[in-house]
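User: Hello, beginner here. Can you help me understand these amino acid letters and fold codes? It all follows right here:
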Amino acid sequence: QAAFNTGALIRWLDFNDTWLAAEWGHPSDNIGGILAVADWLSRTRLRQGGEPLRMAQVLESMIKAYEIQGVLALENSFNRVGLDHVLLVKVATAAVCTALLGGDRQQVIDAVSQAFVDASPLRTYRHAPNTGSRKSWAAGDATARGVLLALFSLKGEMGYPTALSAKTWGFYDVLFKGQAFRLPRPFGSYVIENVLFKISFPAEFHAQTAVECAIALHPQVAGRLESIARVVIRTHESALRIIDKQGPLHNPADRDHCLQYMFAVALINGKLSSEDYEDSSAADPRIDALRAKIVVQEEKRFTTDYLHPDKRSIANAVQIFFADGTHTAELVLEYPLGHLRRRAEGIPVLVDKFRRNLERCFSSERQTAIRECSLDVDRLLQMPVNEYLDLYAL
């Protein structure tokens, strides 16, 4: 239950990071399970007169979970067969938490096989006409299930050696069109080093650069919204598949996965916040009027660079055309603020997001304590997990 709650909080409140490849996902979803297990282990050991886990072990477990989820996502597209990426959260959490709990190699294998036997939820709750709030708690569900499978494995529950490859009944034949997984690189630390931080906007990540362009263009068009004839957004194929939406949008979950909606709000208001997805904000007639004028096209180069292992861009290009025949210059933005290539620019903004959200919940003394130990890496590594989490208790 702790894993579910923390996993849901991370994703629902927009505190997640992002990984984009052949499969999409959020490696920070695993933190729900890792923190729950590490905290429980620490408190249990202390009650028994032992030593608690240190935050170094949490960070090591995060590196492993990120790598498992992210490397599996590099060239294996679960979305193309209709499955949701949280399967990879369940797999990664099961593996890492089994090891955290003291499981041996065979027990880790058994837990991972169980995760694949579980298969995956359908992606339908992320797409029209069924987009809904499950997409905000599916991560908590997956990491909690990973913890449960880890506990089963440690109690001696058997695994299934050919859960993936069994003819007719295995994962590959039943759900993956008979194709085996491809693992293009060894497991190391590539994913956590290249992960995308969600810093600027509460927006599905494929739209981040488009929204940044919209805010940059806002001063030029603020007084000319009614005279806009057409907006052309050139983007990558994944954005077309996941967030290119026409027609009615039924709820906030639908709106924050619509490229046209996010762009329109940012262009009209010069900003985008979580409140902009609520029904009261969506009632602004200017939004749907502008959405109807937006043309979204694939730019092949953007699609290629999106998948390039040394680029991993999330590019969008935007140009606005007016009824009088004039137009803005085309803005092209390939890397969002949370990207590895913009770390020097992005990390101070990320720390500021951390600071602002601490202010929402805690006294000034508690905020200072959390910031000081979180930003001092050497101190954080040695800190008992239970003591660190106690700082967040209200």
Remarks:
- The chain has 19 helices and seven strands.
- The CA atoms of residues 22 and 182 lie 11 Å apart.
- The chain has a mean pLDDT of 96.
- Strands lie at 17-20, 24-25, 196-197, 228-235, 294-298, 316-322, 331-333.
